[in-house]
Structure formats: structure tokens, C-alpha cells
Amino acid sequence: MLTREQIADLIFQRLQSEKDNLKNQFQNPNQINSCIVDDLLPEPLAHEIFNAFPAPEKMGEHRSLRENKKIAAQLNLYHPILEEITFAFQDPRIVSLVEEITGIKNMEPDSKLYAGGISLMSEGNFLNPHLDNSHDSERQKYRVLNLLYYVSPNWKEEYGGNLELWDRGLKYKQRTIVSKFNRLVLMITNKTSYHSVSKVVHSANRCCVSNYYFSDEPAENEDYFHVTTFYGRPEEPIKRFLLPIDAFLRQSLRKIFKKGVVKTKHIYKR
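The chain above was modelled as a monomer; its predicted structure follows.
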């Protein structure tokens, strides 16, 4: 099994080879800042990572009107390759190169994996349009970048479970990025980075390795704070009514309880 340093070597080489292309993708002013690199790792390694994913029942669950998915951050409970690939993205060389690609300076990876780690979506699972929590678990740093690495072999667009970026807001059609095998997506997170995951409609598991980078400075020209804020899809009138109320109540509570009412369990406890 490769170590995280060896995996980081491979990621670095692949990103470096596509650096100029990725810069151009990410800095497109007409869309949510994002870029895609396919064939990130050698295929046998990507298959090894996928095969190491735990069964859904061995993971935590987020299930509500907002979302339905399996998650895990305590990676030492699972096959060690999952910890190695996750923390490979936190290698200083990778962080520095991603800063060059995105133009976002002074980023820091999150060793606690707050809201990161691994996720799994099976048939019927989804993630409604939302803005990510603006800060880390201690509300000290801004979340500025998502790194999403997909490892489900032969995944097709018609299976659902695809990343959706609402470039012009929720009143307009979203841009779909297929959760293609061995694909890495970098995506800014700010006050307008609305994104979602379409409902899985296939009897297979969509598996993803997630990292988030943080910074002392926001990915905006001004300070801001918001909890993870969900919205209904255009075809979901009930959720479009209920989820803004839910967001308002949770945001109001966070103004009183700065670190939340309930301490998050979605972190890596060493």
C-alpha cells in the first residue's frame, strides 16, 4: 500500500501537468470558480481506494429534508488507504500548488476533517442546494475551497449523484459535473457558491473523498458568517418554503451560541 507521501507525489505530478488548464478553468468569471482534473491517480490505485470504502451501515448518517448521505471522518476505523488518500491532499506541496491554480492565498488544510473525510451515497440519497458553513468548527477561519475526489468505477451521468453548481443562482439551470471515476473537482466556497448533489437513481454507491481548505481571510472582499444553508430545488415548493425557515432558526441560534448548540461529531478525534 502506498503512503500518503507517495500518493501526494502522484497528485502533485498530475496537477502540475494540468496547472495552466486548471487555472483557466477555475478563474472563469461566468461561473462558480471551479476546475476538474480527470485520471488523477493510476487506475489500480483509484480502484483500491474505492474497494476500501466501508459498507454504508458502518458509516455515520446525515438524513433530513436537507440531505441524505453516509459520512465518516474517524478514518482510523477503516482501511488505512482511506486515511492515506484523504491526508495526501493536505501535503504542503499540494496546498501550495492549489494556491497557484486557484489564486486563493494562505490556505490551510484541516487535520480535524471538519465535515470532510469520506462520503457515500446510495440509491435515493441526495444533497439539496446549499451554501457550506462559512467557517471551521471553532469559527476561527473561513472555509474557502472544497476538494472532491470521486472513486466509483463506471459512474454515469444518468445514475444521478452528480455535483451541481448553480452558477447564476437557484432560479436558473444548474451546471452538472458528473461524479466520474478518478475525477478531482476543486470548488470555491463563498457567499454565492450554491451547489448540490442530484438524487442517486442507480443501485450502486457513489463514493467521494472530501477535503476542505481554510484561511484567515474570506474568499470575498468582506467578512461574513453563515451556517450551512439549504434551499429547495426549483421543483420542490414545500422545501423551498421550509428550508429557509430552518436556515433562519439555525443561523439565529449560532448568533447566540457561537460554536453551536451541539458539538459536532463530524471531526477526526486523534
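The radius of gyration is 17 Å.
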